[in-house]
Every structure is written in C-alpha cells, then in structure tokens.
Amino acid sequence: MQKNNVFIFILTGKLVLTAFLLLCSCSTNTSKNEITSEIAFEGVNNYCHNTYDWSVAEDNQSIMYIEMGEETDTTYQVVFRSYTGAFVYFYVNKTSGITKMEEYVPTLDIRDEVGSINIFDYI
Questions:
Q1: Which of 30, 46, 76, 106 has CB 3.0 to 4.6 Å from 40, enough for a Cys bridge?
Q2: 88 vs 2, 55, 66, CA distance in Å?
C-alpha cells in the first residue's frame, strides 16, 4: 500500500512541477519582452537629462518638464517640453524599446521626425 502512495505522490509531484514550470516560462517571457510605462518614462527622462540643458529650469520648473502622454497597444508616448516652448514626443515601442522622436514647435506649427533611440540605452 505504501508503494502506491509513494507512486501517486511522485506522479502528482511531477505534474505539479511540470505545471509550475510551464506557468513560470509563460510569465517570464511576457515580462521579459514588455516595457512598462515606468521604464519608458525613466528611459526618456534619463535621455532628456543627458541631452538637454536643464539649468534654465532650476528657477522655474514649469517651463521644462517630462510627462506621460497617450498609450496605444504597441507604444507609450512620453512628452518632453523644452524651455523654448517646443515639445518632443517620444514613442516607445513596448516590445523592442525602439523609440521614435518627433519635435513639434507650436508657435510655428512645425512637426518633424528628429530620430530614434533605443530606450534600453538609457535605463
């Protein structure tokens, strides 16, 4: 009788272990490939602080800032406002990290693509 109990325990243990490994591998792949909004914001924030001169915003922080924009199924939008009044829109791809940048100058109504970065280079 004990042999049957041990056999059932081992079989159950293998099934539980297999199910556990399958669940772990599924959740690991999803979290490994998807960028969160926090990661997108952090990467753009680091890029902007490395690229732009923030000394003009020390006295008046409302003239230069970074904020989250709209979110789609595939991208996060992060918006940088310069002290000049121009905006740079960062479109962070949720899976690849490739981030397209678009500059908009409201006073001149000019919108231009200005390049791209890999968000992982700034995290």
A1: 76
A2: 71, 18, 9
| Strand-pair partners of 32 | none
Interatomic CA distance for residues 65 and 45, integer angstroms: 9
Helical H segments across 1-123, by residue range: 2-33, 37-51
In contact, 104 and 89? CB cutoff 8 Å:
yes
* Contact assessment for residue 68 and residue 76, using Cβ atoms and an 8 Å cutoff: yes
Least confident of 49-53, 69-73, 86-90, 99-103: 49-53
Rounded Cα distance between 92 and 57, Å, is: 25
Residue 3 falls in which region: left (phi positive, over 0), alpha (psi -120 to 50) or beta = alpha
Task: Please give the structure tokens belonging to residue 10.
Answer: 């081992």
Q: What are phi and psi of 101, to 5 degrees?
A: -120, 135
| 34-85 confidence digits (pLDDT tens) | 899 999 999 999 999 999 988 888 888 889 999 999 999 999 999 999 999 9
